[in-house]
UniProtKB/TrEMBL annotation:
Pfam families: Ras. InterPro entries: P-loop_NTPase, Rab, Small_GTP-bd, Small_GTPase. GO terms for cellular component: autophagosome; endosome membrane; phagocytic vesicle membrane; plasma membrane. This is Ras-related protein Rab-23. Coiled coil: none annotated. Interacts with SUFU. One of its GO terms (molecular function) is GTP binding.
């Protein structure tokens, strides 16, 4: 298998206060549907979608986590092993905007620094906005993240969020290429996946599963994973 045939699987967590549109975003992106009903997420949910980025197949595994605090203890266990994060707040919910810092910290505590996009959702309701544009930009700058304004309802910029994250992750994976050690028999790994949390292993199909250690920076995780081969 040649290097350019690597398949990449990325675990992405979607976080943010209850009602900001996390489940809707994943449904929109993976199923192309939108519903006006609000059914709060209990614990976590999961959907996936395959896309092509820079000629590479990328499998995005999207973890929808409950925004309500009552589920905090359950959801944070599911952050582990995530390689990218969508941090969402709602245009019409001031609390959700102000909670962004603490969501960022919660994810950082479990995953270290991972590529994160801040999504200001519900921009179709801009007339009722409680967050001014400069504030949103300041927040993104303070957290060192890209800000994307989106409307899941109108399907504006939803795909852009996931495409951006996938591209960032691919870029990070390519960075340590000079440290990439081929296996003793000269074969390269078939698949790189970050689906499972903690440490690195190879499954029966020859798929390489990256299992980042808690608090470990992703780049280092990738480096050590590559060194195994
Ligand atoms: N107007 C508008 N409504 C939206 C948009 N996205 C989601 N909604 C609505 O917002 C409500 C909450 O959406 P959910 O996707 O359930 O929110 P959530 O963040 O998953 O909530 P929890 O499961 O409690 O964490 C639903 O009634 C959606 O229809 C949007 O872009 N515009």
């Amino acid at each position: 298998m040649r290097e350019e045939e690597l398949e990449v699987a990325l675990k992405v967590v979607i976080v943010g206060n209850g009602g900001v549109g996390k489940s809707s975003m994943i449904q929109r992106y993976c199923k192309g549907t939108f519903t006006r009903d609000y059914k709060k997420t209990i614990g976590v949910d999961f959907l996936e979608r395959q896309i092509e980025v820079d000629g590479e197949d990328v499998r995005l595994m999207l973890w929808d986590t409950a925004g309500q605090e009552e589920f905090d203890a359950i959801t944070k266990a599911y952050y582990r092993g995530a390689q990218a994060c969508v941090l969402a707040f709602s245009t019409t919910d001031r609390d959700s905007f102000e909670a962004a810092h603490s969501w960022k910290l919660k994810v950082e505590n479990e995953c270290g620094e991972i590529p994160t996009v801040i999504v200001q959702n519900k921009i179709d309701l801009m007339d009722h906005s409680v967050v001014n544009p400069e504030e949103a930009e300041l927040l993104a700058r303070a957290l060192g993240c890209k800000l994307i304004r989106a409307s899941v309802k109108e399907d504006v910029n939803v795909a852009a969020v996931f495409r951006h994250l996938a591209a960032r992750c691919l870029q990070e994976m390519r960075e340590p290429r000079e440290d990439y050690y081929p296996s003793p028999n000269g074969h390269h790994p078939v698949t790189i996946s970050a689906f499972n949390p903690s440490h690195t292993s190879k499954n029966q199909n020859g798929t390489i599963v990256l299992r980042p250690n808690k608090h470990k920076k992703r780049k280092n995780v990738l480096k050590s994973a590559c060194r195994l081969f």
